O-succinylhomoserine sulfhydrylase (Candidatus Magnetaquiglobus chichijimensis), 401 residues
Amino acid sequence: MAGDGGGMEGRGWGMATTALHTGRETTPERENSPPLFLTSSFRFESAEQARAIFAGEEEGNLYSRFTNPTVALFEERVAALEGAGHAVATASGMAAITMTFLAYLSAGDHVVISRSVFGSTTNIANSLLKRMGIAVTRVALSDLAAWEAAITPATRLFFLETPANPTLEMVDLAALCRIAHDRGIRVAVDNVLCTPCLQRPLELGADLVVHSATKYMDGQGRVLGGVIAGERKSLMDHVYPLLRNTGSSLSPFNAWVLFKGLETLPLRMERHCDNAERVAFHLAARPELSGRVLYPGLPDHPQRELAVRQMRRFGALVCLDLGSRQRAHRFLDGLRLAIITANLGDCRTLSTHPATTTHAKLTDAERQASGITEGLVRLSIGLEEIGDILADLDEALERSA
Ligand SMILES: *Cc1c(COP(=O)(O)O)cnc(C)c1O
């Protein structure tokens, strides 16, 4: 369950303040912005101190694979924002997801995974987990009965993204967590699309939250990073030893970039959502796109009511189905402002054709089951002037017609 004293509740600060002020302690230099400790190891004052720190009798930095103050500050800020007791940073979002599987699953165990998860997560489930003797069942994200029916005596973990990328399908998190907890199963949520600013899964009952910090947390498309947040004891018992020994740790440089990103995350998410709402309503009003624009905030979205209940706003991804791969490609090629890239969560508006890029490695059946049609285009709406974004989309639609 959620935190054993996350910074925000502890101090009563709101999101924007928490993002800026968590970890205010300074070094003897009295710097105002937190420093970058780009050092692989740390000196000991004496052989005795080295012995005591290694023995765990004294707290202190040892070696940056598992203790670095810059990485620790990033972890502390994420934990505070998610309302978690603790967080462990990783080299990328996929490292966070892989570590979660490796930390909480053993040979003979069973995991239930949403059918609509990030492409590499599906690839890990299909290859690494099976090779390690971990049974995997994939279910439709929003189908609570399917999750329940998939449970076996060996089930240890539920893993999902909500909303899912790129279909924006959602699951009732509180209801799913009740099903899991009745059977002693942990729930891990990939919260990349929402960030803690829009959705806090631990408050809804989830045990673990994983992030690709590469996306909105950086927000400026610079570095890779990941993080796992949850209860301190659980992370220290299961995740930290694995990370310490396997070394999929976050670089201090990336941690520094990422916590500077966190400082403006609440502000950026508001603008991302403002712009995305405008884009969704604008596109949905075009007669030829009627019923073809996916956005949880649109009145015709079948799960709008759930989104209102468990998310603070509707997010910044808008998807549209242009009917065919040819038209989708022509539309992307017709964009002058929005950039074609596989990324999302950048301050610039990005466009992707999932079926031929991020989800190309899935089988046709998997793509179909995940709702990724040939005409589907994913837009990650950025922070530009809204008029410029709308004009670019309109012109690309005209050009691709
Ligand atoms: C990008 C992404 C990941 C993987 O993160 P990396 O930092 O690229 O390893 C996982 N889940 C979601 C939802 C993502 O968008």
User: Anything to note?
Assistant: The two ends are 50 Å apart (CA to CA).
